[in-house]
Design a protein that fits this description.
By secondary structure, this protein is an alpha+beta fold. It has one domain. Helices cover about 25% and strands about 15% of the residues. It has 2 helices and 4 strands.
């Protein structure tokens, strides 16, 4: 889920409209951790770990080399 939060640090000279008052924060719909979210899966916005868990536990897709699901998990597991 995406929530807009106030990250204001209370500048001593007053608000200078730095953009921290309305900042988007991304939270996983399954575990609730703040993280980078990936595409929605079954209507939920999930982090990397939860997305992989959902794909593997769904049984909807065969995890065979060359399938779309195989490549999705492969790219999600890559370290950048």
């Amino acid at each position: 889920m995406v929530r807009v939060e106030n990250d204001c640090v209370g500048c001593p000279q007053g608000c200078i409209n730095c953009g921290r008052k309305y900042v988007e924060h991304f939270y996983c719909d399954k575990c609730g951790e703040e993280d980078t979210l990936y595409e929605s899966y079954n209507g939920e916005q999930l982090c990397r770990e939860c997305l992989i868990d959902e794909i593997l536990s769904s049984g909807d897709y065969p995890i065979v080399e060359g399938s779309d699901c195989y490549w999705a998990i492969y790219y999600l597991n890559m370290e950048y």
